[in-house]
Amino acid sequence: xxxxxxxxxxxxxxxxxxxxxxxxxxxxxxxxxxxxxxxxxxxxxxxxxxxxxxxxxxxxxxxxxxxxxxxxxxxxxxxxxxxxxxxxxxxxxxxxxxxxxxxxxxxxxxxxxxxxxxxxxxxxxxxxxxxxxxxxxxxxxxxxxxxxxxxxxxxxxxxxxxxxxxxxxxxxxxxxxxxxxxxxxxxxxxxxxxxxxxxxxxxxxxxxxxxxxxxxxxxxxxxxxxxxxxxxxxxxxxxxxxxxxxxxxxxxxxxxxxxxxxxxxxxxxxxxxxxxxxxxxxxxxxxxxxxxxxxxxxxxxxxxxx
Amino acid sequence: xxxxxxxxxxxxxxxxxxxxxxxxxxxxxxxxxxxxxxxxxxxxxxxxxxxxxxxxxxxxxxxxxxxxxxxxxxxxxxxxxxxxxxxxxxxxxxxxxxxxxxxxxxxxxxxxxxxxxxxxxxxxxxxxxxxxxxxxxxxxxxxxxxxxxxxxxxxxxxxxxxxxxxxxxxxxxxxxxxxxxxxxxxxxxxxxxxxxxxxxxxxxxxxxxxxxxxxxxxxxxxxxxxxxxxxxxxxxxxxxxxxxxxxxxxxxxxxxxxxxxxxxxxxxxxxxxxxxxxxxxxxxxxxxxxxxxxxxxxxxxxxxxxxxxxxxxxxxxxxxxxxxxxxxxxxxxxxxxxxxxxxxxxxxxxxxxxxxxxxxxxxxxxxxxxxxxxxxxxxxxxxxxxxxxxxxxxxxxxxxxxxxxxxxxxxxxxxxxxxxxxxxxxxxxxxxxxxxxxxxxxxxxxxxxxxxxxxxxxxxxxxxxxxxxxxxxxxxxxxxxxxxxxxxxxxxxxxxxxxxxxxxxxxxxxx
Lengths: 306, 511
Known about the structure:
The structure holds two protein chains of two kinds. By secondary structure, chain A is mainly α. In chain A, 73% of the residues lie in helices and 0% in strands. The relative contact order of chain A is 0.12. Chain B has four domains: 10-90, Methane Monooxygenase Hydroxylase, Chain G, domain 1; 102-108 and 213-250, no CATH class; 114-211, Beta Barrel (Periplasmic binding protein-like II); 265-509, MetI-like fold, CATH 1.10.3720.10. In chain B, helix 1 runs antiparallel to helix 2 and helix 7 runs parallel beside helix 11. In chain B, the strands form two sheets. In chain B, strands 1, 2, 3, 4, 5, 6, 7, 8, 9 and 10 form a ten-stranded antiparallel beta sheet that branches. A four-stranded antiparallel beta sheet of chain B has the order 11-12-13-14, with helices on one face.
């Protein structure tokens, strides 16, 4: 490495000092330009939102001649969400919440079991098992949607509540699809919990199961919450599987119900749709902001939200 | 170490036995159902899996595997099995018109009857049981002999002297006017008489019809008894020597036919190729655009002098936080060519009004616009993280060397950034490669490709094309072809991710 001579260093310092004043003006200009750019980008990011809010409050229920500030604002569109027998919005949202909730809970339970085994026991075939799970989960099972459809059709001929057009069958597909990745995530976290804690507990007479419920799970609460919430959000946003599996309006999730409702109806149902979009999106946005810190660290391990 | 796994309490053991008992009972019942439905292979797999479950839960040596069992079973059922089944279906002609098994089709064809020219016609009188509502029919043949005929008992001779009786057992005679009322029900009766079938065909006559097809399992041939045409099964359809085929066909293995169709059939090849190219273009441009915009925003927000950074960051995340299907639906409304806000703005600013949905090029542009909006926050978050990980002394050194900002960006920031985010860019590519939600919501793949014999649209990507082949469109479901294309996607995803593995060396770090 080359070392600057003391003289050269002094010269640089002097120059730098002389530049400070002009730099600060330049920096101010710089920041102003950046601020303007940032505001423009934020306008792009927020662009659809004022239109949706305004449409949801507007009595006209159409895209035609929409103004950004609704004329004669009313909550009519929101009321329609509650009492349209043809389009049971609340039922759809409820279905989405139930399916996503059950998927999240069962996923957290099953992945924590599996992760406990992978993290705490040493046995033959363990590494192979881990690698196989890693490889299998690379093939998103939604790609095999035709096979899943035929599988559920077959299952449904024996057990209708798990067959086609059932929320049970849909939930099973979702859980199967996310187990692999989340087992890995969970195992990584369990590995960071010191094994000495387990050993101490076992010496004190705890069973393996007690170690799991009384030591590992309480310490792993953050990762349980993150996996649960992320699974919930991803499941809530699925469109492909639900579109293929669900057939009758009573069983639709919000994604299916909403997209079929508004298809070709933009001119006639824009207001009601906007109200539904806001009601359907706001809870998820709130959940998302709850987990976004952990998401940022999870991002670097490869989690892509659907 | 004093582990208590071995001295379990009685309650623990009882619970475990109860659980296993329930599982075994259910499995047993299912094995019966599977065998009844002729699915012997699945039944065997079920028995093996059940035995393994019992083994795992009874052997102390396999204790660690117990924890894995539920998750593993679900993964096998919902991930591994569908994958294998996809391979199987891709080798069959499973599609509308070829849904049933061969046995089912033969049974169906053997249930067809025709009326020969010399068919016997009978006069009939109906008798009805008032309590059960069932019928028997008394037939009189052209020679004047009487028979009783019913679905359950077939045809039996009946001795009648003079008038027909008013009652036969519990059955009461139905007069002609009443017969008219019941005619619909009577015409549905299928009365077997040997190989033939007798059906009530009008108020006066019942006619004998003959079985149209007979199947000979030893030669695997189906014969039309009326014309003596012999049909042989060809690729899931019974076909006569003159090329005439019988509906329905059945599902059967057809080898690599589906794959060859993609290569050879011009009406499939051209649209498939178009869809294939657009899938890559769409995924690549999506990554490029979202990354470029995300990086730009990240660079802006990374400047410590910028006010409201936290607020800007939160706002920029919003597109990522809204469920994608809702955002996509909203954008489709905003892009409406006639009334949408975007075209309203473009008209007043530039005097143009693009047709975002029926013009292929504009449709693709619209999709990329929406996807950039949907995806840039993810890239921004990635880049913000990566930027903060770049050591600041490198910039100090560059400053001392007097490197201008854009040189610093090009030869310092960008290379270092790419090293850490490249695997995630590949991940994002793989995600968009299969981004069904956006493509299907935008225009269901439309506008259509002219001249395609399969339902393919100009904005369709492989996964949405697969979906349309299997479940959509007026041209009937083609599960075989859909599965062949799904396998193609699997291969692509496998290639992309194996590349990623090599890059990140993730596999080697498994402990």
